[in-house]
Recover the amino acids of this structure.
């Protein structure tokens, strides 16, 4: 028992990072600061609905089949209606807590009478009970769910320090800070700001040249010019694509059973190109949803529809075709809901949604848009799942020349087959039926394609297909699309969404911390042509963004999660950023863009261990991970790393990258010992450290070890090392150099074991090995793998 | 039992105290954990685990991947021998769905097994001649003959067993356990995975079946592999000796500490702690994997294979060593049971791989006093058909059969020497006491002190649980 007690029950490390995951539990408007003090005026959306939704709706909500005692609490009509056989009592009587049966039931001591019933394992706190009472006292006013109301631009709040504000964003954040008794932090110093904004816009650290230029540019618009340069760099598209591939569940394999390879990289390269060309977001998404249905669709527009074929596809012998085909259509439907509407549509697949006003009928009506594709559930090995488009040599040399298809152009294969969307011809339209309990083999009512009415009613006369669906999605009256989009981008830049559950804007989702700001940004984004680069520019130009995270004890104490944005960011970066940083700062990075995915280092044997046996007569997937050996493929940005769905790269998994089985719009940023092992022992980090050490030793301007260490630190951490830091590193270097002097063989062992990247001579093994390990220490620092 | 719960809460209070005094790194993280409980006030108490005194503190799950034939191993059906070659009666088949591999077969010839069965133990339990060692420990086992599942193909069926859902996207059982119960050993992961391969028809696995899905990635199963690097990236590069590694870690800590002083982010302290943990793993894992100090009697018990790293027997021995050290959930996979042809030969070979070591593991845990609070589970993702696949040749195989199959459990609070549930005389449908996969999972959690309906994780607005929306604890098999 003793041992058992010594570890907290949430993780084997005992000391793991929980901060990030716990954010999701946050619901209240200002609970973090003013817990237990009832608001003077209770707000339905912010105070009441979260309680009703979470504790009551499962039995007294939108799902008619599960509704108990005929009571529904999600509408005022339902909540105020007479109950019981005699129609003589009422759950809620506005203004009359004493007559409201709801309050009686939630305060019962008799378990038979108590609500929520003990069997649900749900309960209400005293604070929550008091809130409900006050709400009823104040008239039990209902309000529509905030996310279903079309956003409007409200006037900028009056703030006490307008001089601090760079742009509109700051008025909203400063207003909240002031209300919470917080002050903005000082601006981040230039070096740190540079590193931060480079990662946010390009996913890469600043180069030495960028740093020298920016730090030595005293002009007031130096930062603006920097941001514009970064937004114009092609690395921008790659950085944006990283999150888009999570959202689009992009992968290089089919994902079930033998997990055979597929070719989808031309679609991925199109995404990068589209971000770089900054095509308006509404067009970017519409092409992906319905490019094939556009009048005179171009090959590029059709290629974009590969988005909806990124889902997993089975080759497992013996499966029932319709079961899996249904699964693919459901995947598209669920992805549409999560990625674009911020709604958990999939909850309504088997029963009416328990929390949000989405019926099963509406689920399958949305499903109907994605259900008319000439496709199969089971696809034999080695066949490209239909429908697909052929990309010919002339396409690749012509309009689609952005695709790096050198390999194709060199071989005698004359086409690439790329999965895309297609609509069944009019005479072969598949009828969509509601599937009882979500079962593929239990179809019931026939349905037409139509969108969820509570979000926005369907425009009569719109084409009842994916094209009409995309028009509906980007209708100016659609309350969700722009909000969901700006929130996701906000999350990518600030680390946490204004709605911290970007996947869920429904009743069970988090409430916006800055609702007026979210709406202002959403409307502004639409007014300016869904311009993503402009949106990002606004965010990084804000004073809010440019705050420092240093010396933040007071702000941290008051607001541990930085919900009110009174300091700069501090969180561990995604794995792609970390590896690209290692490659870039060591000079190994090959910035070439696009083309087939690449296979950088991976410990041997990982694929074989879970694969089937190799047989002579049937292709059953790639058994062995064959590392690339050509320098032009080894050191590419991590965006291009091959992802096998059933066994993704272990480094990515250790750092919370999703497996790409399903649409994901948020990554967590945990801290684990396996991450430490990757940074300490992965060949990629060792090799980068060796190569950088060699380059530093070669530099004529850096004759002394302290200069070499300083230069390495500047490149890797993005700032000048402090004296004490330098001393620690130099002490280490000296001791190690001495040890390696005494044992040069071990220095050579280390250098030669650290990756194949060639170096011209090994004339100073002790110095190089010592410097290499000093560099490796730097790559392992919390600051270095974090955005600060 | 009441007392155990009281003890547990007392310890929790002690933890709260430690957290509030905020001494050192560990207590800081505990602090944030407890904050979490406090934030979601109404559920704080309900979510405290265990919900009641656990019978089992740890699990070893010997997963037989590919689906072993219950008809060659546990479920003795003399009727099938009598009717060998005759058609499966429609009154038994009932038009239930079949896999795409045999759905279009014109004929469904029944096949009686070539393997003989005998009765063992106090209950006279039938066990096939392929499992002589298992037969000897039958009085330790709780054999469930009435398992059934919803999936009829490997990928969804394994995913269903391990995550409670046929489609990917849910955490594995071991991840749930790691999340809910943590570890008894601060130097090893709470959830460890061991793989081995038999000479059979191997169906691939996916690492998602030991993935943490929406739970934090620290709850992922960590694969321990045979070879020089038992945990990925564990081994230091050549040229880095332990002195150097220690000095490097000290420097990393010093510099991280300076960073923490400047930024005051507790996450930096967490990272410092994780580097120490990584360092401790570099010692604890090789020590764990090194079986050279095991006495000869160990290898006599588990069989000579246990000396060959990567075999099922070696993994069973490692499972015992992991459990001894308090690892919460050890998940083995032995691959190769998918006998679409030659069910006799293939099942014989695979049974030989696993029989002695599985039995040895139970005996070994027992002699060490660990069996009483360690739950051992043996079984695959579904069963196999009573009819032959393809034309009835001598080399017949059996297709996938989700409607009935056999698994066994031992130790950890289940009744010993019990056979639970029964199939019909054709071995096609369940005659009594069906156990659904969610029932199995609910029971497993119950044994670990967890109410499967209360142990949930909120993701995308919904409270997810291992057993999805169903599952009943099989109280009849609880000791």
């Amino acid at each position: 028992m003793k041992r058992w007690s010594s570890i907290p029950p949430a993780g084997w490390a005992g000391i793991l990072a929980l901060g990030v995951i716990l954010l999701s539990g946050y619901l209240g408007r200002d609970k973090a600061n003013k817990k237990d003090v009832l608001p003077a005026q209770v707000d339905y959306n912010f105070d009441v609905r979260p309680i009703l939704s979470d504790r009551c709706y499962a039995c007294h909500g939108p799902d008619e089949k599960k509704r108990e005692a005929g009571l529904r609490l999600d509408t005022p009509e339902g909540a105020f209606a007479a109950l019981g056989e005699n129609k003589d009592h009422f759950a809620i009587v506005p203004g009359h807590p004493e007559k409201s049966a709801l309050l009686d039931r939630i305060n019962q001591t008799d378990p038979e009478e108590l609500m929520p019933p003990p069997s649900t394992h749900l309960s209400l706190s005293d604070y929550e009970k008091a809130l409900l009472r006050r709400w009823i006292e104040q008239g039990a006013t209902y309000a529509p769910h905030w996310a279903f109301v079309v956003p409007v631009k409200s006037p900028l709040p009056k703030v006490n320090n307008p001089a601090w504000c760079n742009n509109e964003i700051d008025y909203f954040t400063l207003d909240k800070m002031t209300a919470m008794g917080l002050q903005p932090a000082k601006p981040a110093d230039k070096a740190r700001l540079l590193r931060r904004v480079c990662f946010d816009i390009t996913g890469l650290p600043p180069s030495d040249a960028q740093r020298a230029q920016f730090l030595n540019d005293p002009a007031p618009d130096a930062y603006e010019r920097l941001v514009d340069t970064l937004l114009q760099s092609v690395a921008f598209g790659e950085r944006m694509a990283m999150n888009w591939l999570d959202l689009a569940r992009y992968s290089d394999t089919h994902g079930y059973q033998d997990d055979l390879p597929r070719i989808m990289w031309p679609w991925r390269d199109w995404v990068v190109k589209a971000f770089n060309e900054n095509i308006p977001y509404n067009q970017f998404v519409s092409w992906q949803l319905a490019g094939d249905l556009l009048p005179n669709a171009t090959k590029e527009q059709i290629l974009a529809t590969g988005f909806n074929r990124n889902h997993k596809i089975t080759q497992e012998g013996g499966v029932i075709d319709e079961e899996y085909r249904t699964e693919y259509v459901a995947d598209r439907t669920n992805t549409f809901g999560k990625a674009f509407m911020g709604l958990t549509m999939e909850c309504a697949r088997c029963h009416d949604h328990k929390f949000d006003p989405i019926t099963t009928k509406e689920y399958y009506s949305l499903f109907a848009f994605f259900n008319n594709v000439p496709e199969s559930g089971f696809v034999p090995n080695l066949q490209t799942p239909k429908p697909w488009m052929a990309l010919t040599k002339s396409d690749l040399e012509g309009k689609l020349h952005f695709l790096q298809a050198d390999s194709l152009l060199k071989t005698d294969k004359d086409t690439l087959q790329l999965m895309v969307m297609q609509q069944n011809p009019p005479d072969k339209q598949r009828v969509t039926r509601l599937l009882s309990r979500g079962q593929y083999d239990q179809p019931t009512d026939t349905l037409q394609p139509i969108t969820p009415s509570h979000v926005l009613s369907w425009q009569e006369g719109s084409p009842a297909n994916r094209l009409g669906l995309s028009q509906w999605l980007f209708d100016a009256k659609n309350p969700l699309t722009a909000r969901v989009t700006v929130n996701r981008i906000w999350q990518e830049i600030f680390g946490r969404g204004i709605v911290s559950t970007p996947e869920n804007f429904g009743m069970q989702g988090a409430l916006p911390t800055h609702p007026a700001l979210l709406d202002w940004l959403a409307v502004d984004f639409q007014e300016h042509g869904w311009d993503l680069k402009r949106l990002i520019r606004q965010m990084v130009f804000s004073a809010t963004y440019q705050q420092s995270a240093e010396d933040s004890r007071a702000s941290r104490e008051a607001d541990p999660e930085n919900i009110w944005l009174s300091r700069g960011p501090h969180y561990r970066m995604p794995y792609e950023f970390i590896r690209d940083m290692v490659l870039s700062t060591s000079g190994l990075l090959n910035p070439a863009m696009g083309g087939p995915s690449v296979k950088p280092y991976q410990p041997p044997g990982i694929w074989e261990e879970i694969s089937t046996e190799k047989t002579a007569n049937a292709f059953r997937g790639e058994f062995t991970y064959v590392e690339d050996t050509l320098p032009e493929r080894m050191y590419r940005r991590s965006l291009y790393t091959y992802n096998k769905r059933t066994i993704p790269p272990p480094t990515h998994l250790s750092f919370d990258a999703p497996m790409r089985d399903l649409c994901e719009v948020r990554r967590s940023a945990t801290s684990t010992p396996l991450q430490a092992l990757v940074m300490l022992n992965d060949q990629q980090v060792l090799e980068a450290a060796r190569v950088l050490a060699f380059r530093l030793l070669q530099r004529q301007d850096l004759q002394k070890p302290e200069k070499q260490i300083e230069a390495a630190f500047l490149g890797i951490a993005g700032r000048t090392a402090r004296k004490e830091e330098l001393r620690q590193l130099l002490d280490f270097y000296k001791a190690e150099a001495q040890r390696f002097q005494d044992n040069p063989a071990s220095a050579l062992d280390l250098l030669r074991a650290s990756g194949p990247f060639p170096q011209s001579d090994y004339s100073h093994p002790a110095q190089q090995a010592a410097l290499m390990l000093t560099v490796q220490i730097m790559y392992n620092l919390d600051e270095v793998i974090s955005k600060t | 039992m009441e007392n155990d719960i009281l003890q547990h809460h007392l310890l929790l209070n002690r933890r709260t105290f430690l957290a509030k005094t905020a001494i050192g790194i560990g207590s800081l993280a505990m602090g944030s954990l407890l904050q979490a409980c406090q934030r979601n006030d109404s559920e704080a108490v309900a979510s405290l685990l265990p919900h009641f005194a656990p019978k089992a503190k740890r699990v070893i799950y010997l997963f037989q991947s590919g689906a072993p034939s219950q008809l060659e191993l546990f479920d003795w059906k003399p009727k099938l021998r009598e009717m060998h070659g005759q058609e499966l009666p429609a009154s038994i088949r009932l038009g239930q769905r079949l896999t795409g591999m045999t759905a279009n077969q014109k004929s469904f010839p029944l096949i009686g097994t070539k393997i003989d069965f005998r009765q063992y133990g106090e209950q006279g339990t039938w066990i096939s001649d392929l499992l002589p060692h298992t037969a000897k420990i039958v009085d330790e086992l709780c054999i469930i003959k009435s398992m059934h599942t919803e999936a009829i193909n490997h990928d969804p069926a394994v995913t269903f067993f391990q995550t409670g859902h046929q489609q990917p996207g849910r955490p594995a059982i071991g991840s749930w356990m790691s999340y809910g119960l943590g570890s008894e050993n601060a130097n090893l992961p709470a959830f460890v995975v061991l793989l081995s391969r038999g000479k059979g028809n191997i169906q691939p696995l996916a690492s998602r079946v030991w993935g943490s899905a929406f739970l934090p990635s620290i709850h992922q199963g960590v694969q321990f592999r045979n070879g020089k690097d038992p945990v990925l990236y564990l081994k230091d590069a050549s040229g880095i000796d332990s002195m150097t590694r220690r000095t490097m870690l000290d420097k990393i800590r010093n510099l991280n500490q300076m960073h923490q002083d400047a930024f005051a982010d507790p996450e930096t302290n967490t990272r410092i702690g994780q580097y120490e943990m990584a360092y401790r793993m570099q010692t604890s894992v090789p020590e764990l994997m090194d079986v050279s100090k095991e006495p000869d009697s160990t290898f006599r018990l588990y069989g000579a294979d246990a000396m060959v790293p990567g075999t099922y027997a070696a993994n069973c021995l490692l499972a015992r060593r992991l459990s001894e050290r308090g690892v919460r959930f050890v998940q083995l996979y032995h691959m190769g049971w998918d006998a679409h042809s030659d069910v006799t030969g293939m099942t014989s070979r695979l049974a030989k791989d696993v029989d002695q070591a599985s039995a040895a593991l139970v005996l070994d845990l027992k002699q060490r006093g660990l069996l009483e609070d360690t739950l051992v589970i043996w079984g695959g993702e579904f069963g196999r058909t009573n009819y032959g696949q393809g034309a009835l040749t001598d080399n017949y195989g059996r297709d996938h059969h989700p409607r009935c199959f056999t698994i066994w459990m031992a130790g950890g609070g289940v009744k010993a020497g019990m056979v639970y549930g029964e199939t019909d005389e054709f071995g096609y449908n369940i005659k009594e006491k069906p156990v659904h996969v969610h029932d199995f999972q609910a029971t497993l959690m119950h044994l670990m002190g967890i109410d499967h309906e209360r142990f949930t994780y909120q993701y995308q607005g919904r409270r997810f649980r291992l057993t999805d929306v169903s599952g009943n604890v099989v109280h009849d098999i609880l000791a």
